[in-house]
Amino acid sequence: MPDHANPTACLLVIGNEVLSGRTQDANIKFLATRLGEIGIPLREVRVIPDIAETIVATVNEVRARFDHVFTTGGIGPTHDDITSECVAAAFGVPWEKHPEAWARLDRHYRPGEFNAARQRMATLPRGAELIDNPVSIAPGFTIGNVHVFAGVPRIMQAMFEVLAPKLAGGAPVLSRAVHTGEVPEGRLAEGLAAIQARHPDLDIGSYPYYRLTGNGVAIVAKGTDVAAAEAAIAEVAELMRACGGVPIAGEPAA
Amino acid sequence: MPDHANPTACLLVIGNEVLSGRTQDANIKFLATRLGEIGIPLREVRVIPDIAETIVATVNEVRARFDHVFTTGGIGPTHDDITSECVAAAFGVPWEKHPEAWARLDRHYRPGEFNAARQRMATLPRGAELIDNPVSIAPGFTIGNVHVFAGVPRIMQAMFEVLAPKLAGGAPVLSRAVHTGEVPEGRLAEGLAAIQARHPDLDIGSYPYYRLTGNGVAIVAKGTDVAAAEAAIAEVAELMRACGGVPIAGEPAA
Q1: What are B214's strand-pairing partners?
Q2: Are A88 and A126 in contact (CB under 8 A)?
Q3: In this structure, what DSSP letter does residue B171 have?
Q4: Tens digits of per-residue pLDDT, A2-57?
Q5: Cα-only R_g, chain B
Q6: Which of residues 197-216 of A touch B (CB under 8 A)?
Q7: Hey, where are the domains in chain B?
Q8: CB contact under 8 A, A21 and B44
Q9: Residues 6+ apart with CB under 8 A from A53
Q10: Record's Gene3D superfamilies (chains A, B) (predicted)?
Q11: Which CATH architecture has domain A9-166?
Q12: What CATH number should be reported for the domain whose range is A174-249?
């Protein structure tokens, strides 16, 4: 893997709905892409259920192993929304009324509508810093190196863009790619391994594709040194030609 | 969570391409759904990179904690395909030529094309049992409670359907749902918590939705006892009515 000098990230997707197959996750790809762009590459994702002991243990394990932990899901008003109190338990701090979050939600709801369930969304781990929610008011928060987002993609994305400028990232992780429809990856493999060995700071991946317009393989080089990625991809293109293929710059059309 | 008597499953998605955001995962939802149907509910997913120490350590951790572990990705012919040798290392067995896999691939390729890179796809942990690949020949395999699939969704799905009849599942996990466009979940929350408390063997989730046709909330009850799920959802519908909403059976249209 490249970019050893960059800070690292882990994502916890919290929610039974992904584990049951009800919901197609849409947060992993967004966060993976954006975190690479700001130089905090995503190193691991865990999808875990709405079980308090599991959430607490997992938060504590991964916050010790990664520079940043992002969580999605479980910060709404219903009984299955337990992320916030579990993060408080993981940090060993009280879970208590947050005056600013409380004031924002109290203003938002009509008189009498800021009920006990909704008040849970303004109850946060002591020491939490709010992450504004430009979509639906109820904020996310940061405590230590853990950043707690909503699970609804539109809200999660808005919260991420609020937080991102405050994160000290490293060099952006960039990629260059080339593909060919005429050479199976099994024939490129030996040459690819040699190219990867010559570029240990890059992460070179080989991804077969199956399209109505034809099958083929895309080779992607990722790293923080764009010149190195371009040089490696030029070597891959040469390898494709040597194997009788026609290299085409970039990824294949979707 | 319901269905304590059922065997449990963990999925390892192995591959830098999901962690970099290049690839939208399409395997979690499929396996989550099918595993629920055969009564081996998915309890955790991890997405991990193509790093040998990470794969070995993760396989060993989760195979001790779950009844079944499924892996996707990393069994092709290229340098970044290291799942098979890592599973051998995790089990502490030799990684060696598998005669039957070797024979299948040798028959499949034209003379001289079954090269060293492709021979890696016929090199498996000692004791592995093949999982047929009806799409592209190179097999997956089972060793102990670990089932190793390809990452390409079409191939992974075919391998799963080959394996599924051999797995001893529990009672299928079923779901019933009701939704309403007129009541925000914050007003249902207190009543929902009471319904969940009355049905501890069900897993009742509250999922807001945002559609061009209108916003609302879907309530889903999951478990192995369909009569209990139907009873709980009837109580939720009554709760929706009591809050001034019109309950509509099932999930909202996509």
Answers
A1: B211
A2: yes
A3: S
A4: 445 899 999 999 999 999 999 999 999 999 999 999 999 999 999 999 999 999 99
A5: 22
A6: 203-208, 210
A7: 9-166, 174-249
A8: no
A9: none
A10: MoaB/Mog-like domain (3.40.980.10)
A11: 3-Layer(aba) Sandwich (3.40)
A12: 3.30.70.1130
